[in-house]
Amino acid sequence: MLDITTERNNGIAILRLTGRVISSSARSFEERLLTLVAEGETRFALDFHHCEFIDSSGIRVLLILLKKLNAASGALAVFGVSGHIMQVFTIAGLARLFRIEESEAAAVAALG
Amino acid sequence: MMTMSSRSRDTLQREMSIKILVVDDEPDLELLVRQRFRKKIQQQDYQFLFAPNGVEALTVLDRERDVEIVLSDINMPQMDGLTLLNRLREAPVNPIMKSIIVSAYGDLENIRTAMNRGAFDFVTKPIDFNDLEITIEKTRDLQSMLKLAQSEREQLVAIQHELTVARRIQQSILPKQIPPQTNGQEFGLHANMIAAKEVGGDFYDFFMIDPRRLGFVIGDVSGKGVPAAIFMAMSRTIIRATALRGLPPGECLTIVNGLLAEDSDSAMFVTVFYGVLHLDTGEMEFTNAGHNIPYVLHADGSLEPIPGTNGLVLGIIEGVSYEQARMHLLPGDSVFLFTDGVTEAMEVDGGMYGEERLEALLPSLGSTQPELLVQGVFDDVRLYATGAPQSDDITCLALRYRS
């Protein structure tokens, strides 16, 4: 349902999401992120190019990540956000909490 | 699922010793059993109890309710093994207990009778202890599976119970009637919810702040089940209590957010639209905290989205302040609020209902009557999602301003 691959770019954890972030996939997404946080990652960029859909359980995971990162003086950016997901982010007021960037390069620069 | 089951079965076997009751009038047998299974007894893998006949066996079983295997001879004084089998079917023994019968070699008639009376297996005399051990282990395997099935069934019952609790919490906080003060003269209001099997955390509320101001709320809590239901009940109560102080919506949700965010480390949140309708003027003040954009359906049939107020979902970040905006309703205009259970309702092959369909539907219903709007949307969503399971609560609230 949701496939996540992790890469690194300039010391930033890049997570590419493919599929849907909904209640059934949110848990593994959360575990993946929290494991990375526990391993000391503090800067995250999430790639939404191939993410079709996110619901409130998915938003919740982003907010959990954000709280952890705030506590660790880290930061979060997202990129490749379009259509439905952008609308969800906008409605939920999330643009006030993390950077929404056009491209991976812009996200990495924003976190750098 | 498979791997988990077999793992817990192994754990079950390793951790628990098995209690075996040997029923035989031959006094030497006890010594023999203790010798042959010395290791198993030392390792506390097997525990043996002994009884010389069926009557005493029943006494032991009445005292030791955790006996799991009865190994019984057939010919014994006072009560024979076949009678014992009959009595075991009625006795209040461990439900997973199994009996193994010891018979003379080739005594098929007694063996058949024993099996028909519920014996699980048999061994023949003279007892081959290797064979007996295999038989005991085979019995044990089956019992482990039975135990596992039982605990899974219990878990299922617990989950179902939790679902019931969550649904009750949700149902109990929904208002049952429209505020009676106004007698429905100045506005009409209708709301309904179809709860998902696993409660999704939707709620709605409405109340008179004072005789001239109606407050109305729709909300959706993240997460599901009992935690979502509790957070929902808390959110609804805090919103109502704060709103009844008569504060403007922005200020009200700023306070609510502070209270909800104070000790929420589980990152639970709630999206809320809170509106206040001034009955004298048709003025509507509102704040949208991360909720789906509602609509005004004008009396002339045109549809207008209610602009967002840049509000973050409630309960996450302390110290955020919420803005409000206002709109003017004319007599006959209706406000239509809904949760994402409507627009994210899925059809069988995974498509979503979506805003476009809702925006096309609302004006086509040909009325701004609250009941008709809510019912019309429910009917259309049901039509769209026919055959697909409902994964989230579906909630709508419609409010029509009359004069």
Structure commentary:
- The complex is a heterodimer of chains A (112) and B (403).
- Chain A has 112 residues and is of the alpha/beta class.
- Chain A has 4 helices and 5 strands, in the order ββαβαβαβα.
- Chain A is 44% helix and 34% strand.
- In chain A, α1 packs parallel to α2.
- With 403 residues, chain B is an alpha/beta fold.
- Chain B has a 5-stranded parallel beta sheet with strand order 2-1-3-4-5, sandwiched between helices. In chain B, strands 6-15-14-11-12 form a 5-stranded antiparallel beta sheet. Chain B has a 5-stranded antiparallel beta sheet with strand order 7-8-9-10-13.
- In chain B, 41% of the residues lie in helices and 23% in strands.
- In chain B, α8 crosses α9.
- The chains are: A alpha/beta (112), B alpha/beta (403).
Q: What is the chain-wise order of helices and strands of chain B?
A: HEHHEHEHEHEHEEEHHEEEEEEHHHE
Order of helices and strands of chain A: EEHEHEHEH
Shape summary of chain A: globular
Can you identify the CATH class of the largest domain in chain B?
A: Alpha Beta
- CATH architect. name of the largest domain in chain B: 4-Layer Sandwich
Structural class of the secondary elements of chain B? alpha/beta
Helix content range of chain B: 40-55%
Give the biggest sheet of chain B. 5 strands, parallel
Instruction: Label the overall shape of chain B.
Output: elongated
- Largest interface here, residues on each chain? A-B, 17 and 28 residues
Terminal CA distance of chain B reads 60 Å
Descriptive keywords:
heterodimer, A: 112 residues, alpha/beta, Transcription Regulator spoIIAA, 5-stranded mixed beta sheet, 4 helices, 5 strands, 44% helix, 34% strand, B: 403 residues, Rossmann fold, Phosphatase 2c, domain 1, 2 domains, 5-stranded parallel beta sheet, 5-stranded antiparallel beta sheet, 12 helices, elongated, disordered N terminus
Summary of the model, kept short:
Chain A contains four helices and five strands; from the N terminus they run E-E-H-E-H-E-H-E-H. Chain A is an alpha/beta fold.
